[in-house]
Amino acid sequence: MNSLLLLCLPVGAAEPDGIAGLLRNGDAEGAWEQARALAPARAGEPEFDMLYGLAAVRSGHPEHAVFAFERVVALEPRNHRARVELARAHYLAGNFTVARTEFERVLAIDPPQRVRENVRTFLDAIERREGSLSTRITGYLELRAGADSNVNSATSDDTLEIPALGTFTLNGASLDRSDEFVEKNAGLSVLHPFTRRHALFAELTYKDRENLETQAYDLRSVTLSAGPMVAFAGGRLRLPLNYQFLYLDNSKYRRLGSVGFDWSRDLDRNDQLQLFGQYGSLRYPDNAARNARLALGGAGWTHRFHQPDVQVSTSAYFGDEDTRDSIGEHNGKQYLGLRLGSQWRLAPHHTPYFSLAAQWSEHAATDPVFARTRRDDFAEARLGWAWTPADAWLWRVELAYTRNDSNISLYQYTRKQAFAGVTWRFE
């Protein structure tokens, strides 16, 4: 469609070996570079602006072409070709409403039949695209059940040594506790596009994990994320505002508010690069000494192999939680994390997968009780199998093993989990 409305190129503004010649020879990038170099001196000349706009369109910069053709139309209102090219540039830039108006102005001047047919082709394409720009709502409902060897992530040691106080025997509430659990999760996503490249998104996620016997460790979270999204060739950028409530045993445990970014770019058909970051505030209603400023950033990479059909993802991140109260300075920490995951499309409806995660953290100050600065080494492995008997349904089983080593024995633990669940997705 890029060449439907191209007529003969003007030559008055440049010699054949100049911009017009490069365009005739198919060197759009060369024409664009030369046009950009000449623009400071010649922008505003209708013949040059026509060549500049054509070079911009052909080299994939329609937003620059719009301004050039607008200058031509402003000086030469009866330059019908410039108006056609202006409409096409708006179309390629995703400005469909303006493009339709300009194309209809072209039809109003009763152009030749060939131009009318081409304009109708663009108008039909705009209708189809605007139909695809309608608001999209998707979501899921999920039910899972399983067993957890350590619902409270507690140590299995029955004694604890505290400097200057001696050795203490831990009671049942301070030791690891096993239980069965049920999870009820749901999510809703809304995407409202304004143009082919610009949209607003909103996501609401609800997670509820109830233990059958140890309700004191029931967890529930509500997370809202919303913001603008910009799509570009081979990638996208999202700028979310996030807010999350975390409840422990039906009581507010923590609030998180943050701003962030999530950028992804396809390097080629098999590789994608991601960059992400978050800056916000952690609030603990019942323990103000833990309130902190959160800063986190990282990068990820995904590669897909085709024989066999395997996808591998890896990421690294760095975080800093800086407490606001000097009394709780030991609660602040810095951490570095790594993640590796892979999934294998074994058959059309079966996908085994695994993931590995590690995080190394060091707290900001000496713990006043244990007289040492806490350091943790966290590791987790997950192995699962996903089955999709139909597009809307996902069944999954998963095993997980977690280990946290710490130089303070109270925070050292291991944890094993297993669950099976079903997810229903809708749109």
TrEMBL record:
TPR repeat locations: 80-113
Organism superkingdom: Bacteria
Keyword hit for Hydrolase: no
UniProt entry tagged with the keyword Endoplasmic reticulum: no
InterPro entries associated with the record: OMP/PagP_B-barrel (IPR011250), TPR-like_helical_dom_sf (IPR011990), TPR_rpt (IPR019734)
One matching Pfam family: TPR_16
Cross-referenced SUPFAM superfamilies: OMPA-like, TPR-like
Keywords carried by this UniProt record: TPR repeat
Descriptive protein name: DUF560 domain-containing protein
Organism of provenance: Thiohalobacter thiocyanaticus
